[in-house]
Amino acid sequence: MNFFLSTDLVIGVNESLKLSDYLADLSIRQPGIIYDANLSGNLYFQEVLRKLTTGYTNSVVYCNEFKGEPTYVHLDNVAEFFRNNPTDGIIAIGGGSTLDLGKGVAMLMTNHVPALSLKGYPKGVNDPLPLVTVPSLLGSGAEVSFNAVFIDEVEGRKLGINNRKNFPKKAIVDPQLSMTAPMESVIASAMDCLVHCVDSFGSVKHTPISRIFSIEGFQRTFYALQQGQLDRAESRLDLAIGSVCGITALMNASDGPTNGFAYYLGVKHRLPHGLAGAIFLKEVMRYNHNHGYEKYALLNPMRTSPSPKEATIELLEEMDDLYKQLEIPNLVPYGYAKGNVDELAQKASEALKGSFSGNPIEFTEDSAREVVSQLI
Length: 376
Description:
By secondary structure, the protein is α/β, with parallel strands linked by helices.
């Protein structure tokens, strides 16, 4: 059994106002700051940025205006900007895509190669510049993971740059930064965390330690969403903790069909990854339950039945209610109908055999077809 987590983590309201102190601890003297354009109108972020650039007048600042998840081409362009404006550390502030961009830039600053040449799981790379991540959405876990997602536009696939040297040196999780994000983005990111927790929980590669994180992350995130009181920064601390737990579990286990479906649908229809995963999550769980998998009962903190089967049914009923509350869509709004069930099942199966193989029970193209048919 192996378990790893390599990022120094701080969680707390207003912690991002202390960024200058944290950079000093890392001996960063000329920071390169990448921030999400969506934060531009956030008054709290403006104060964070003002305080940071006042403390470091030689900062190099880049506003990431790229829409959607970054491509390798975009990564090359941003890396070139920072090569022309040298820094000794990268600070990435924003959603998961901007944090991933920060990981990629930190890597390319010390590895002068085309970004696409590092796709997948590159080996023999130089240590990246020190990276500090500050998430403005809570759920993806990008702030503490070594995975960085990038899209290969030619292949139309998400591949990423995945190397353990990508781990941020420090993650500052300040719920206050998320308060101006649209609620649909907050929900999509939180649902991404639920996918991480469920996929890692059922993963054939799970360990007793990874399951501790899967369960804790699921219960905190699920409860926070159920309560519907996310208008206070303090109320989002559960989302912050859930985010870290979910990605930690996933890194130490593997993903499953839900994450695989999300990758396929998200790229094809340019959907936020969390929303794409949410569409499939409940039905993948129901499929597993209907085919004899009863361990999801352990995810249900409010179970009243001692029977694993009944406790799982209770959890799925609670999820039905949550989906109605959050207005999670099915596949119909994205142009799917009974006539293209087979096509989606086949293409997803061909592209995502690795994700399907992580499921706790056999998951085939026929399984995908059964799940997809429930969403139309």
